[in-house]
Amino acid sequence: AEEFLRAFPNNPAERRRLAEIYVSTGEFQKLTTARQHLEMLFAAPDSPYRADVEARELAAECEYGLNNLPA
What we know:
Blueprint: H1 2-7, H2 12-25, H3 28-43, H4 53-65
Helix pairs in contact: 2-3, 2-4, 3-4
């Protein structure tokens, strides 16, 4: 899946699903990769994911799992 998204980066549904899978593992390295995928979704021009509550929750789960909490 990673190779597919590198070759064809304009596949937001697949990118989001991969982020969901990575977050579900709870593995530190996978959370880092999930966060990168979510950041790409949020950064895309006219991205509907910026206002997507579930995508934002995934991003929050990444930050929590990576211990990036506000002081």
